[in-house]
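Backbone geometry tokens:
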Amino acid sequence: MEYNIFYKSSVKKDLRKIDKKELLTILSNIENKLRYNPLIGKELKGEFSGLFSYRIGDFRVIYTILENIVLILRISHRKDVYKS
């Protein structure tokens, strides 16, 4: 099954902080892997319960699955991604 990918508006701010080469890798992985298998990521626990984290190098993509939609909530370096 193919899922539609949507990005939260605040993700634009996250993307500006990422090097162009790494950004292309991240977006390519989202479009080519996450779109077809959103359960590839790790389900989070605790206060982030219900969300998933997909690792791409040192970056994490935080997302949720809603019916046939993958909603990207955050893309950030692993040291910063879980901070508010």
Notes: Residues 7 and 72 are 5 Å apart (CA to CA). The first strand starts at residue 4 and ends at 7.
